């Protein structure tokens, strides 16, 4: 699979389908693109906060793609006219040949109008034997050990910016529990309150050792 980082937590995946995760595009100061540049087959949302739901509604209404979200958020999106697929934690579903499993995240979730958004989640994305873990917004949690023992993770995208999520220290501990082949830091330096130096994360992971790929917005890697 090809992973293109769009800044913050936004990712464009290419498997046999084009899949956007948390498409925070227009108001994302790191992205530099507009929503009309995207024509995904599917959109995955980790939770309903504005820096994750982003431009999902506009893109979904324009392209008629399905938005995959936790049941309560899916219900809210459906009320906005979006085609949805609701799931819950522990559930798996297929997007063509790509298997997606929703996993625990420790975080809150509410829609832009304040509606309850269900709970937040992360995703295990399995395509052609390659496994990506997108943690969404989360604190460190003990279940990361289970995720790390169940899945042979090729790439783990982990928030490091602190304040709303794990900071670098906790993300390093999370990485130890997950033992991925590569860690990719996300959810930092978008706003002043989540400023940090990803090189600190990379240096601390090197001591374990775990590889760290610091991706600039627009960068791509192929698993
Ligand atoms: Ni959030
Ligand atoms: Mn966030």
Assign the CATH topology: Metallo-beta-lactamase, Chain A
Report the uncertain regions. none
CATH superfamily: Ribonuclease Z/Hydroxyacylglutathione hydrolase-like
Largest sheet: 7 strands, mixed
What would you call the shape?
globular
In CATH's first tier, which class applies? Alpha Beta
| Secondary-structure element series | EEEEHHEHEEEEEHEHEHEE
- Whole-number mean pLDDT: 98
CATH architectural category: 4-Layer Sandwich
How would you describe this protein?
The chain is built from 6 helices and 14 strands. The chain has 223 residues and is an alpha/beta fold. The chain has a single domain, classed as Ribonuclease Z/Hydroxyacylglutathione hydrolase-like (Metallo-beta-lactamase, Chain A), CATH 3.60.15. Helix 5 crosses helix 6. It is globular, with a radius of gyration of 16 Å. It starts with a strand and ends with a strand. The structure holds nickel (II) ion and manganese (II) ion (MN). Nickel (II) ion is lined by residues 47, 49, 52, 107, 137, 164.
């Amino acid at each position: 699979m090809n992973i293109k980082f769009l800044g913050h937590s936004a990712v464009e995946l290419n498997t046999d389908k084009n899949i956007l995760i948390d498409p925070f595009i227009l108001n994302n100061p790191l992205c530099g693109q507009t929503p009309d540049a995207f024509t995904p087959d599917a959109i995955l949302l980790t939770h309903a906060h504005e820096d994750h739901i982003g431009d999902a509604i506009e893109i979904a209404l324009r392209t008629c793609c399905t938005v995959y979200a936790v049941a309560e958020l899916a219900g809210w999106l459906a009320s906005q006219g979006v085609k949805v697929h609701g799931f819950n934690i522990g559930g798996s579903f297929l997007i063509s040949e790509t298997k997606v499993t929703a996993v625990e995240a420790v975080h809150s979730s509410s829609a832009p109008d304040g509606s309850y958004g269900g709970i937040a989640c992360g995703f295990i994305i399995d395509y052609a034997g390659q496994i990506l873990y997108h943690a969404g917004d989360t604190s460190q949690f003990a279940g990361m050990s289970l995720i790390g023992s169940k899945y042979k993770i090729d790439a783990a995208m982990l928030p490091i910016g602190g304040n709303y999520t794990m900071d670098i220290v906790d993300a390093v501990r999370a990485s130890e529990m997950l033992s991925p082949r590569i860690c990719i830091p996300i959810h930092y330096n978008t706003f002043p309150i989540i400023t940090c130096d990803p090189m600190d994360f990379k240096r601390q992971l090197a001591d374990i050792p775990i590889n760290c790929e610091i991706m600039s917005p627009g960068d791509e890697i192929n698993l």
